[in-house]
Amino acid sequence: MEDWQLKLDRVNERGKHLLEKGIWSDCQFLVGDGQHKKRFSTHKMILSMSSPVFEAMFYGGLAEENDPIEIPDVQPEAFTAMLEYIYTDEINLTTIEQACELCYAAKKYMLPFLVNQCMSYIWKDVKYPMACRAYEFAKLFDETDLMTRCMEIIAWNTTLVLNDKNFEDVESSTLLAILDCEKLNISSELELVLAIYKWAVQQCKHKGLETNKQENLRSVLGSALSKIRFLTLSPAEFASSPAIPELLTQDEAFALLMKISSPSTVVTVPDGFSVSTVARANSTQPTSLPAIFCCERTIVQHISIKNYSRMDSYVTFTVNKDIVLHGIMIPSQLKLDCEEESDVLPREELDEHHQVYCNTMSTGTTYMESVKVFLQDGRGRQVSCALFNKRVGFKQLIDIKLNEPPRLYANITYKLIVELNKRGWYPMGTYSKHTNVSAGVLFTFCVGDPTESFRDCIIRSILFSQPMYRRRSRNLDQHNYQEFD
């Protein structure tokens, strides 16, 4: 038998091997519903280490005895991604749909870190094609901030949303929420009439109802028809719509057309129809980018060091509030008139160069800079990174953006690592204060082991924003845990 353990150096690699091969598996899951079911071979102890729900399921007073354990309300793809996180600590999100499905599973099994990673991805990437799906997900879990954000995107891109092929499959509550909006970017209420007609036809097909019968269309629409502002249409628009004869009786259509043509007519609006004559206003574009703040660190003692090939700089820090980290600012090299033999510049020459550095934006002379930036959490796991290879000026501050701006959580220790790969002189220094307040966020630097912060003065500023959603502090899906308790 092959000793596979000897070939896998890291814990996550060994966990992945166990998951993929099913070695020593002691529990089976049958995940999905209908014809989309998939069987998973897993390990009770590994699952219980990550989730109190699994712990109660396997080792609680009412431990699950079925084999396999059926989970019809989670998609197999989402369950696969959740197991990859549990076994390997890896999270690979590629679409809003995947993030929503995975977040549902993470909430069900009380995996709060995975929930927050999914929510961050949804907030960052939600756009009009998936805005309705994201809205329904947010509504399911009462994420009111995300619901508002999604509806803003829908209101701004209404025509695109209504014409998207996925709109015909949105939930009825989503349709009603859109029709309740006072502001929608549409050219006419006629767009909504046609959209709800197409939606009703699709719903009839799903239910096995005949699509050419008006009573079926009205049945699936429910109160949606009452939210259409027919009186904002012109007589020509009303008469030209092919959807109106399919949705309204002849008497209803006649009464509404008479009211549109002659508002003072004695003919009344049919019961259950909107009497509003106010057209919906255009929506304003939602704010897509958060405000970026800068936490500047103040140097009290200046010194410069020569980098001969590669030089590392790192600092640990915490914040008292959740933030989104976008990047850092570091100084570029000093431009010297002569080569220095020592590794440290004399104080008098350093002061002169520092004064030039602070007061000069650019000397017109550039060089090719090469920097790597890594962000780690307290367990040494890489959270994000950046590779900077650009031509920059001497005596400037370089703005380096992370590839994927991560959400950092309050009172958790993080470590920023900067790797300088260009030969030359860099301005360094020391700090007297290890705390700094910026935009209401308290940064505490050089926390924990003193050896975890070294040459930290190269990291001059931290660029961050406020999270676009509030992290829930309450226990997730506590009812699922109590079900097995």
Structural write-up:
- One of its GO terms (cellular component) is cytosol.
- It comes from Cuerna arida.
- Pfam families: BACK (PF07707), BTB (PF00651).
- This is BTB domain-containing protein.
- Residues 25-95 form the BTB domain.
- By secondary structure, the protein is of the alpha+beta class.
- It folds into 3 domains: 4-125, Potassium Channel Kv1.1, Chain A (2-Layer Sandwich), CATH 3.30.710; 143-261, Alpha Horseshoe (Serine Threonine Protein Phosphatase 5, Tetratricopeptide repeat); 293-334 and 366-465, Jelly Rolls.
- The chain has 17 helices and 16 strands.
- It has a 6-stranded antiparallel beta sheet with strand order 9-8-12-6-15-14, with no helix packed on it. Strands 4, 7, 10, 11 and 16 form a 5-stranded antiparallel beta sheet that branches.
- A hairpin with a 2-residue loop joins strand 14 (435-438) and strand 15.
- Helix 2 packs across helix 3, helix 3 runs parallel beside helix 17 and helix 5 (96-108) runs antiparallel to helix 6 (112-125).
- The model is unreliable at 337-363 and 473-485 (pLDDT under 50).
